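Backbones bend. Shown next:

***
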Amino acid sequence: MEVITKIIITVIIVFTAAKALHWTWTSHIDPIATIHKMFRQKPKFADLVIARDPSKIYQGEVIVADVTGGVDIKNGKVVFKQISDTSRLDKSKPIEYGRSKFKIMHVGRIIGMKSVVSEKGSRVLLNVMEDVICEKVE
């Protein structure tokens, strides 16, 4: 009976560790926002680590746009086929996507409102920018 109990405890620990490692390596962790949050307020344990959403664009700790189209990253440049909800985006300041900072070099087209219809349903995107070309900032 002791051996079975040890096996069960081992399986639970290994499973929990595997889930924690998977989350750690697949999340976009923001260490600066995490440290700021730890010192500004007493966080709950589950909120201690701030993970960034890979479908969002940030300026500082603020979400300023949603990535609603494809993204091409190569040679220190990123091209967003389409981003939306950009009303809080300041094009003169660097943006943060993933783990890198970029400067907006060119916006191909700006659309106030765009309707998107697909098999999943329809939705309306506001403040849409298309073909946004950015260069990596050090």
Notes: The first strand starts at residue 28 and ends at 29. Helices lie at 2-26, 31-40. The chain has two domains: 1-52, 53-138. Strands lie at 28-29, 51-52, 56-59, 62-67, 71-74, 77-84, 95-97, 100-118, 121-137.
